[in-house]
Write a structure and sequence with these properties.
5-stranded mixed β-sheet; 7 helices; alpha/beta; 12 strands; 273 residues
């Protein structure tokens, strides 16, 4: 689980010199230098909504645009709520590649969304975390294409260095994975369960010891009433615990989304509606 789970960074286009905008460009360069090694880390939360809902995507893009206008030229990465994304754990046997994993994940999502594969490809950006064939499974995540493209457009407009778009729990999952005990001496089928909370919703990960190695069995995003369903209750036993390093992501009452700058070494926490 050491493979990257974020979406590709934004490549900045070259910009022709514009003497009228020299002051703005100098200010951007100063901000860029100040945040190059210590970027801003944004958390973008959302209320529950239908996958890819335009109104929520527009609100998220607008919140980022308001933040970007106050931080021209900055380096930034964005951690996103599970409400924005689709996720799937895929089989990654010998010879598996990113395209095969993408096809596995898309087959599940098209069934869930009742959408054609062509429509899914047009409306969603997919990223996989194939770990060099060392793990028997891999993780696939998808974000609505209008959201990805909208955030990238805002970054270009304000001269931001957009490093990544990633699940907000990705770093905590990797931290929890690193802290797993050695498989030596543990019985086959030993389980570990983790959770990342967004209000009453939870992103849950189930890990099991199989053939001498830890394997990710499931990664699901559960509504409050789903955790009590019989099949899920059997799988999760007495429930999941908060993963190491995991905060609780929440949206203020009355807002569709919430964008919070959780800071860098040089930035203080601030929020935007």
């Amino acid at each position: 689980m050491n493979a990257r789970t974020d979406f590709p960074a934004l490549e900045e286009p070259s910009v022709a010199p514009n003497p009228a905008a020299l002051g703005q460009r100098v200010a951007r360069w100063r901000t860029r230098l100040r945040t190059w090694r210590r970027p801003h880390h944004l958390m973008l939360a959302a209320l529950p909504h239908a996958p890819g809902q335009a109104r929520v995507i527009e609100a998220a893009t607008q919140a980022f645009a308001e933040w970007a206008a106050r931080h021209e030229g900055a380096s930034v990465d964005i951690a996103l709520s599970s409400h924005f994304m689709l996720m799937a754990v895929c089989e990654a046997g010998p010879g598996a590649n990113a395209q095969a994993l993408r096809e596995q994940a898309c087959a599940r999502w098209t069934h869930y969304l009742d959408q054609s594969a062509e429509g899914l490809d047009a409306d969603w950006c997919v990223q996989t975390s194939l770990d060099g064939g060392r793990a028997p499974v891999a993780l696939a995540c998808a974000l609505p294409r209008p959201l990805v493209e909208g955030l990238q457009q805002v970054a270009r407009q304000h001269g931001l260095r957009l490093l990544a778009l990633r699940p907000w729990w990705a770093e905590a999952l990797q931290q929890a994975w690193r802290e797993l005990p050695s498989p030596a001496g543990l019985p086959e089928g030993t389980l570990r369960r983790w959770a990342w909370r967004e209000g009453d919703w939870q992103t849950r990960a189930l890990v099991a010891l199989h053939a001498g190695q830890w394997v990710l069995q499931a990664l699901v995003f559960l509504a409050p009433d789903q955790a009590d369903e019989a099949d899920l209750a059997d799988a999760w036993g007495d429930g999941a615990t908060d993963a190491p390093g995991a905060a609780v992501l929440a949206v203020s009452s009355g807002d569709l989304v919430s964008l919070v700058d959780v800071g860098s070494d040089i930035a203080t926490q601030e929020g935007a509606a």
